[in-house]
Structure formats: C-alpha cells, structure tokens
Automatic annotation (TrEMBL), chain A:
Region feature Disordered, mapped onto this chain: 1-25, 318-339
Enzyme class per UniProt: oxidoreductase
Keyword set, alphabetical order: Oxidoreductase, Pyruvate, Thiamine pyrophosphate
Organism this protein belongs to: Bradyrhizobium macuxiense
Coiled-coil ranges per UniProt: none
Protein name per UniProt: Pyruvate dehydrogenase E1 component subunit alpha
Reported cofactor(s): thiamine diphosphate
Record note on quaternary structure: Heterodimer of an alpha and a beta chain.
EC number(s) from the headed UniProt entry: 1.2.4.1
Catalytic activity as recorded in UniProt: N(6)-[(R)-lipoyl]-L-lysyl-[protein] + pyruvate + H(+) = N(6)-[(R)-S(8)-acetyldihydrolipoyl]-L-lysyl-[protein] + CO2
GO BP terms, alphabetized: pyruvate decarboxylation to acetyl-CoA
Automatic annotation (TrEMBL), chain B:
UniProt cofactor(s): thiamine diphosphate; (R)-lipoate
Protein's UniProt name: Pyruvate dehydrogenase E1 component subunit beta
Subunit structure, as described in the record: Heterodimer of an alpha and a beta chain.
Function, as annotated: The pyruvate dehydrogenase complex catalyzes the overall conversion of pyruvate to acetyl-CoA and CO(2). It contains multiple copies of three enzymatic components: pyruvate dehydrogenase (E1), dihydrolipoamide acetyltransferase (E2) and lipoamide dehydrogenase (E3).
One Pfam family from the record: Transketolase_C
Domain Lipoyl-binding: 2-78
This enzyme's EC code(s): 1.2.4.1
Matches recorded under InterPro entries: 2-oxoA_DH_lipoyl-BS, Biotin_lipoyl, PDHB_mito-type, Single_hybrid_motif, THDP-binding, Transketo_C/PFOR_II, Transketolase-like_Pyr-bd, Transketolase_C
Catalytically driven reaction(s): N(6)-[(R)-lipoyl]-L-lysyl-[protein] + pyruvate + H(+) = N(6)-[(R)-S(8)-acetyldihydrolipoyl]-L-lysyl-[protein] + CO2
Region (Disordered): 88-136
Coiled-coil region: none
Organism this protein belongs to: Bradyrhizobium macuxiense
Length: 339, 462
C-alpha cells in the first residue's frame, strides 16, 4: 500500500481536492505542544521499559500523534473518549496528567489505576476517558454503549471510539455499526489505520482496504483523512462532531497514519523495511509539519525551543515521580473487586 | 375411523394450555391448514391448524377450558363417508408413546404426560427470614415475579432500562418482559438485533457511563458469544481502573436444561461465571427469591449474572405482597430444616433435593435442604453450620461435575468442617455428556430424585 498521501480528504473513497483549512497561530502552537508532549512521553516510556521500570506490554504511539491531538481539538467538555491498548497518547490528549499515566506504567500507587491496570488499562472519569482496553475490538461495542447513554439521556455529547485497522476486522465492530446507525447513536468511529495489525499489513488482512467504506452496508458515512496532518484531522473531526450532534447517527473517520516503533516493545518489526519507516518520518512527520509551518510563518527557533523545554520538563517530572512513587500497598490486592 | 385432534405441545416446556376459542363448529367442513382453534400457552396465544380433512365431528373440550394437558383429545374429525355414529369407535386414550428404555424406567419418579423436566410446583417449605411474619402472600408465576421485579425497579430509577432480543414488541421470547414496552416505552425497553457480543458490549459501555442496564439473553447459551464483554469488560473494569469506573449491570435469561432442546441449548453456566472475581452470580429457585433477588441485582452497583430456568418460568409460588421486597445477595436459605444429612442445592437442583427430602423422611432420614440462591459470593457459613449439625452432605445440581459448583461446595466443607464429617461428601450432578435429544437419554443425563435419595442414604451408611 502506498504511503499516506498528504493533505487528502476523500469522501467514501472519492478524492476531494484541496488543503485542509489553515490553523491559527494559537492552534498551531497548541497542536505542536500537545503532539510533542505525546512524542517525548512515549520516548521516555520506551527508555523506562528498556531499564525494566515498565513491565509487560507497552505499545507506543510515536508517529500517530496528529490523530488524537486533531480529534481532541474538535471536542467539547463531556464528550467521551475510548480506545484500545495503544492508549498513552489518547490519555495525554484528554488532558490526563503525565505523572499519573507514567506512574501507572511503572505500576505505582500514584498511577491512574493505582497500579492495578498498567499500560493497557487506564481510565479517568473526570476527563471522560473510558479506557484503555486490552481486547482488540471490545472498545468499539463499549464506545457505542457510551453513545447509547448520551442518546438515552438526551445530551449532545459524542463518543469518540478509536480502534485500529486490525480491530476493524473484528465481528463486534459490525454488530456495533449496525446498532449505532439503527438507533442513530452519536459515535465517531476513528479507525487509526497505521498499516500494520501487529505484523500483518493491511493488504494481507483486509479484503476492503478503504476503511472509510467499512460502514457502507449500514449507511454510515465515512471519510478518509490524512492522519499525519493535524489540520486535516481537526477538519474531519469538526464535520463528524457536527454530524453526530445533529442527531444523524454515527460517522467513520479513517485516519491514515503510521507508527514508527514496533507493535509493542518486544516487536523487532521485521515485516517492513527501515527505508519505509524513514521515508514516512522524513516526508510526513506530523510534528515536523507544524514546526515547519510555524518557522515559515516567522516564528523563531527560540520560541519553539521553549515549547520543547516545557514538554521535556513535564515528561522528566513524570518519569521521576513514576520511579519514586511507592508500589501499591499489599492491601490493594483485594480492593476494587466489588463496590 | 374418526381422527382425534390432540392438545398440541407448542413449546419445549409446555405441559398444558388453555383452549381459548373454537373457530370451527361441529359439523363444519375442515380442510388441511384451516385454523380450527386458539390455544393459550404460558407464553402466547397460538392458532391450531388442522392437518386432516373432513368434518368436525365432536368438540371434546369446550372453549374456555383452562389447563388442558398436552396430548388430551380435544376434538374428533370425521373423514368422508363417516357420520356421528362412528365417533364411538374412537379409542379412549391418546396413541401410546414410544416405550422408554429400561434404565430410564428404573429411575422414573412419576408418570408424566410427556417426557418433560420435573414439574412439581415450587414448594415453600419454610418461612423466609426476609419476609416479616403475617405478610400477605400472592400466588404468582416466576415469569410474573421477574416482570414485576423489573417493572418496580424501572419505576423507581429512570436509569434502569432493558435491552435484548424480542424483549419489547414481541413481549419477551419467554414472555418475561410482558407489558414493559407498554408501560415504559421504546426508549427504555429496547429490541436489539441478534447480536449478543455487540449488545452486551453496548450494555457494558452504557453502564460505564452510569446507566443501569438489564441485558436479557434469550438463553445463556447465546451469551457465550458475549462472554468476553461480560468477563473482560464488565467484571474487571472496576479493578483495572483502581476503583474509578465500575459497571452496574444485570445480565439475565434462562440457563440450564429446558426440555428436549439438546446439547447447544441445554447447558448450566453457573460454574463458568462463578469463577470470576468481580461478578456476582445468582441462581434462584422459589418465586419469592426470583423477585427479591432480581430487584437486589438491579440495585447492586456491580455486574450481576442472573441465571433463570425456563422450566420454572410457568411455575407458581408465593410472593410476599410488600412494596419493596428485596432478598439480599449472598445469603442462602434453609428451605427445609433437618438433622441427619445436608442437601446443598440451588436453582433447578432444588426440585430434586426437596422431593428427595420427602422420600428420605419416609425412610426415617431427616434431611436439611439448603438453597444457596447466590452462587457468588457463596454463603459458606450456612453450609458449614448445617454440616456441623448433620455431619453428612450431598450436593445436587443439573450442571456438570468437573470443576462444578458442587465441587466448590465440597471443597469448602472439607476446608471448614472436615472434623465434623461422618462420611465423604457426595455430588449428584448432570452426567458428563452433552445433553442428548432423545427423551429417555435426556432423562438419564439429568440428575434424578432417586439418585439424590441413594446418595443421601450412602453418606448416611443406610
């Protein structure tokens, strides 16, 4: 499959010409800062994993930052977010604290799940982040249920339900599509197509590789979005949130993106070439795109470095906290099973 | 010879029905396919079509007759050339059933109209401590008790809703949700597509967002499609979120063997779900417990597995007439007090245990029968106190033996009352086979009263 195209928005597979709407300088700065935070956080998590401070499975989001940051820029207070196990970026985009996320990765009491969830299972009721789910595709039915609750209560909140190109082949995804359209539930299905389901490329696993068409038999509209361009993501998210809040039911957004790292920390990534990764990094990096635009608009290197420094400080503090916070008390073993 | 029309069996568990209406009169011509009568089963009103041609000779059961047993002759049809005078030739009894295999005959408890699961009325052997003395009792079917429990809770709390296949417009595949759509409307009584995995997940998601769904599975057998959402999402989220995000949800529907529906529709899931920390598992027997425990389950802030029994739906029992009758989750009930041997059972197993206790009494063995009611958390204390008194115990369940709930009861007795035991504890259970279809084999696959009696006598060295 070809590398994701730049600045392309397709409507159900049909190309629409034109660049996404420009961001204001303020929006560019916010996007840059939020994407950088995710990138630096994930790099640090990778380091801590290498040191043995983080155990188990750890799936990094590096490369895909524009998706969650662009989506979040279109959401309002009360909208729910739910995703699979590659979830650190989503949590940071939801404004969950880096310290709490990192401390959960290290299994400490200050973690969002008090050390009992780990990388794949984190939640924040306060920030409307509903996990963090380790079973591929399960979050799609759950996210549809969040939308059901919005519909039941008659509020105008939207459930943003993320899943990958791999999960898109699970049966319950289509069971959920059917119910969501049948009942006109306010849910945006964001398919993060990073081109590999673990080690299996989209072309080896998917009969229909245009994921924006995956809702076609349920009459769910879909868009293909350049998931490396945060402006394109934001524009698509604006359209989808308006569609959902307007009572029109669900919408599918296929985000064409790419992960730079392996599937998990233990993945040697032999299923693709180093050149392929380097080419995407060089040509399409979501952070570099914003940085270059800002520089071209006359922002100084100095201003950008200040953002870099702020982000590094947050990440270093989080890493420090996560390594020094005590492990959960032994009594925690038996808490939170029932309430 | 004139043809007899028999009361048809219109569902796997139907034992009798009401003859609601005759649509043909005596002397009328009947063609094959004509609707001749309407029969009310416990689930629905069904039309009876003629399969033979001729003239309706005589109506044997007048319309409006209630509780007509399956296979009772209800009318005769005269073939061409026959007259009323030929009616005398009709044999008095229905055609004979196939002879049962000897082994099944030996264990037969009582003659039954057709090979059906045990059908005695649910007995309320002892007053329940949850019911204040002097409370007025109403006689209800278990189906009605369940419906009332849901309706009461839905009136009480606007966040409670029910979803599942055929729960709304069809009024419930087993009529358990009858009338709920009319009272609460389509917003709160929701027909789902046939999509167990998906709607279980939708229910759990709605519960994470703070609603209190009742998810009905048409049978628990179909819930295997959804078991990932029940275990991985519903049961574990509270723990994985460090207590932030739980889910108040009830999964309910018929569990275990119905009658003659064979292997894929006759399985007891009590043991499966009882293994999972984070779930509560309820399997009641009496009508009052069905109601009081379902209300408790709906109010419980945790995911609850509520295992019903299709065979029991039509059975009646006494339900207390109280404005808000709740039976606490996790408490067993001594259904019959005794001193010689403890029978520990739950759900449909109770029907064998109680009858066995009656049989044992005739032989001078005074059995105490414990109805666990809740499988998880299990009321170990009630079991242990009883065993300390009797020194002997038998578990009775329709489920399989290996890693079964009975095995768990035995382990707890061994751990907590070993020194009080006068004999090894014995398990009576469903046989270690998929449920067969043939009536005689099905009967053999299920436990029997005779097996419970034999086990109780064995542990009593009698």
């Amino acid at each position: 499959m070809a590398a994701p195209k730049k600045s392309v928005a397709k409507e159900s597979g049909q190309e629409k010409a034109g660049s996404p709407p420009e961001f204001s300088k303020e929006q560019e700065f916010k996007a840059l800062r939020d994407m950088l935070l995710i990138r630096r956080f994930e790099e640090k998590a990778g380091q801590l994993y290498g040191m043995g401070a983080i155990g188990g499975f750890c799936h990094l989001y590096i490369g895909q930052e524009a998706v969650v940051v662009g989506m979040q820029m279109a959401l309002k207070q009360g909208d729910e977010v739910i995703t699979g196990y590659r979830d650190h970026g989503h949590m940071l985009a939801c404004d969950m604290e880096a310290k709490g996320v990192m401390a959960e990765l290290t299994g400490r009491r200050g973690g969002y799940s008090r050390g009992k969830g780990g990388s794949m299972h984190m939640f924040s009721k306060e920030k409307h982040f509903y996990g963090g789910h380790g079973i591929v595709g399960a979050q799609v039915s759950l996210g549809t249920g969040l939308a059901f609750a919005n519909h039941y209560r008659g509020n105008d909140n939207v459930s943003v339900t993320y899943f990958g190109d791999g999960a898109a082949n699970q049966g319950q995804v289509y069971e959920s599509f059917n119910m969501a359209e049948l009942w006109k539930l306010p849910v945006i299905y964001v398919i993060e197509n990073n081109r590999y389901a673990m080690g299996t490329s989209v072309s080896r696993a998917s009969a229909q590789q245009d994921f924006s068409k995956r809702g076609a038999s349920f009459n769910i509209p879909g868009r293909q979005v350049d998931g490396m361009d945060v402006r394109a993501v934001k524009a698509a998210a604006d359209e989808a949130t308006a569609w959902c809040r307007g009572g029109n039911g669900p919408m599918i957004l296929e985000m064409q993106t790419y992960r730079y790292r392996g599937h998990s920390m233990s993945d040697p990534a032999k299923y693709r070439t180093r050149e392929e990764v380097e080419k995407v990094r060089h040509d399409q990096d979501p952070i570099e795109q914003v940085r270059n635009r800002l520089l071209a608009s006359g922002v100084s290197e100095q201003d950008l470095k200040a953002i870099d420094a702020e982000v590094r400080e947050i990440v270093n503090e989080a890493a420090d906290f996560a390594q020094h916070d005590p492990e959960p008390d032994a009594s925690e073993l038996y808490t939170d099973i029932y309430r | 010879m004139p043809i007899q029309v028999l009361m048809p069996a219109l569902s796997p568990t139907m034992e009798k029905g009401n003859l609601a209406k005759w649509l043909k009169k005596e002397g009328e011509t009947i063609k094959s396919g004509d609707v001749i009568a309407e029969i009310e089963t416990d689930k629905a009103t069904m039309e009876v079509e003629a399969t033979d041609e001729g003239t309706l000779g005589k109506i044997l059961i007048p319309e409006g007759t209630a509780d007509v047993a399956v296979n009772t002759p209800i009318a005769t049809i005269l073939a061409d050339g026959e007259s009323a005078a030929d009616l005398a030739k009709v044999p008095a009894a229905p055609p004979p059933k196939a002879a049962e295999a000897p082994a099944a005959e030996a264990k037969a408890e009582a003659p039954q109209p057709a090979a059906k699961a045990p059908a005695a009325p649910v007995s309320e052997a002892r007053p329940d401590p949850e019911i204040p003395a002097g409370t007025e009792m109403v006689t209800q079917t278990i189906r009605e008790a369940l419906r009332d429990a849901m309706a009461e809770e839905m009136r009480r709390d606007g966040d409670v809703f029910i979803m599942g296949e055929e729960v709304a417009e069809y009024q419930g595949a087993y009529k358990v949700t009858q009338g709920l759509l009319q009272e609460f409307g389509a917003r709160r009584v929701i027909d789902t597509p046939i999509t167990e995995h998906g709607f279980a997940g939708v229910g759990v998601g709605a519960a994470m967002a703070g609603l209190k769904p009742i998810v009905e599975f048409m049978t628990w057998n179909f819930a295997m499609q959804a078991i990932d959402q029940i275990i991985n999402s519903a049961a574990k989220t509270l723990y994985m979120s460090g207590g932030q995000m739980g889910c108040s949800i009830v999964f309910r529907g018929p569990n275990g063997a119905a009658a003659r529906v064979a292997a894929q529709h006759s399985q007891d899931y009590a043991a499966w779900y009882s293994q999972i920390p984070g779930l509560k598992v309820i399997a009641p027997y009496s009508a009052a417990d069905y109601k009081g425990l379902l209300k408790a389950a709906i109010r419980d802030p945790n995911p609850v597995i509520f295992l019903e029994n299709e065979v029991l739906y039509g059975h009646t029992g006494e339900v207390p007439k109280l404005p808000d009758f709740i039976v606490p989750i996790g408490k067993a009930r001594i259904a019959r007090a005794g001193k010689d041997v403890t029978l520990v059972s739950w759900a449909m197993g109770m029907s064998y245990a109680l009858k066995a206790a009656d049989e044992l009494a005739k032989e001078g063995i005074d059995a105490e029968v414990i109805d666990l009611r809740t499988i998880r958390p299990m009321d170990t204390e009630t079991i242990i106190n009883s065993v300390k008194k009797t020194g002997r115990a038998v578990t009775v369940e329709e489920g399989w033996q290996q890693s079964g709930v009975g095995s768990e009861v035995v382990a707890r007795i061994m751990e907590h009352a070993f020194d009080y035991l006068d004999a090894p504890v014995t398990r009576v259970s469903g046989k270690d086979v998929p449920m067969p279809y043939a009536a005689n084999l099905e009967k053999l696959a299920l436990p029997s009263v005779a097996e419970v009696v034999a086990a109780a006598k064995a542990v009593s060295y009698r």
